[in-house]
Amino acid sequence: MPVADRDIDLLRLLRPPRLRTLEDEQRRASYLELFFDLVFVVAIAQLAHELVLDHSLHGFLVFGAVFLPVFIAWQGYMIYADRFDTDDVVFRVVVFLGMLAILALAVQVPEVAHGDGTGFAVAYIVVRSLMIALYLRAYRHVPEARPLIVRYAGGYSLGVALWIVSLPLDAPERYVLWGVGLVWEYALPWLARRLFASIPVHASHVPERFALFTIVVLGESVLAVALGVAGRDWAPSAALIAALGFFVAASIWWTYFGHGVELSVDRMANAILVFAYVHIPLLAALTAVGAGITLAVEQSSEPGLDAGTRWALAGGAALYLACLTVAQRRMNLGFLPRTAQSRLAGAGALVAFAFLGGDVEPLVFTAFTTGVLLAVVVFKLWSVHRAAVAEADVAAGAPVEA
To answer: Does residue 399 have a cis bond before it (omega within 30 degrees)?
Structure first.
């Protein structure tokens, strides 16, 4: 059976990294990148599960603290691949090892929530060390990118050193060092932003990768719908809340993806950084929404939802709408001011309901949350229609209403 030329090339040759973002090529997510994202399904599921188990204020704080290194692990590989991926044997092997380490990171999430973070720290050290190795390889082969590589490889090395130092320490000293390391690592892109003009990222590939990761996180909400009614003998209230949960997920998908044009972000450094940074609370909020749906189904027979569930479901949806508004302002979508206003109004309504809805039945609360998100979608469609009609009138020379 003949072997494809590309496979022969991959088996026989090493393709050194190159700065792909200076080439005029249309980048799309590779099959390896899609496979890489799959390991984060486990991490997101573990994070959502821990939030279901503990949705007190302490539980939310632990959730946010653990979500950040998981997200940074994903983004580190994503940004490296955007600039330097040549899909050769070395890169594939390192990515596979990184995936194995990320799986180890994911299964250690419950241990962190219960106060034992040693395994989580070791896995994170391995994940970041492999990332440093990739940058050192790129340093050798891509001299024009060395100013950026020095900052990233050196900065990540300092972050890894802090995590190593934390290993023999107990809480809270260990977690303080983790926090310092994470803040330092995530400040590196901002500190190196002046180099983005000469060492850019892809304007379409980066938002596509964020969109695909958003699909992974959103899948947790769909999973919550399926599992929420499993083994409940299809109790009417649980089934209705689960169905409403699906429409919550569908509405969220529509607001993120329903614009019908190719995703593209402004390549200016500040725009890229804002787009990337705002996805941290955006994706954490979506994970919380998935946990909120699960909790609402579990509490379907109760007289009202507890505070943690209300904030996970309605508060998470509100935070998502606010963050999405900021993110999409940095994208080339022909953004309409009325769309931002409607989303912020919807977010405000959801926050108010999370505050005041303690005595509202779970089904009614979930229906209200769903209704707000659907209203945001409908208003966006109406605004787009109005804008299209106005544009057509201008093209035809007809007077436009004030």
So the answer is: no
How big is the chain, counted in residues? Answer: 402
Contact 97, 151 (CB under 8 A): no
DSSP state of 354: H
The helix/strand/coil state of 265 is strand
Average pLDDT taken over every residue of the chain: 85
Q: Two tokens at 269?
A: 């450094």
31 versus 386: the higher-pLDDT residue is 31
* 286: nearest Cα among 236, 201, 198, 219: 219
Report whether 247 contacts 234 (CB < 8 A): no
DSSP state of 331: B
Please tell me the predicted confidence (pLDDT) of residue 1.
Answer: 46
Task: Look at residue 400 in the predicted model and tell me its pLDDT.
Answer: 47
Q: Taking CA 337 as the corner, what is the angle to CA 331 and CA 342, rounded to the nearest 5 degrees?
A: 105
Closest of 42, 36, 198, 45 to residue 130, by C-alpha: 36
- Cα separation, 197 vs 214, whole angstroms: 27
The alpha carbon torsion through 153, 156, 157, 160 (nearest 10 deg) reads: -160
Residue 199 DSSP class? S
pLDDT average, residue stretch 76-100: 91
DSSP secondary structure string for all residues of 91-112? HHHHHHHHHHHHHHHHHTHHHH
Confidence of residue 350 (pLDDT cuts 50, 70, 90): very high
Question: What tens digit of pLDDT does each residue of 170-204 get?
Answer: 878 889 999 999 999 989 988 888 888 788 888 78
- How many whole angstroms separate alpha carbon 252 and alpha carbon 254? 5
Whole-angstrom distance, CA of residue 242 vs CA of residue 248? 10
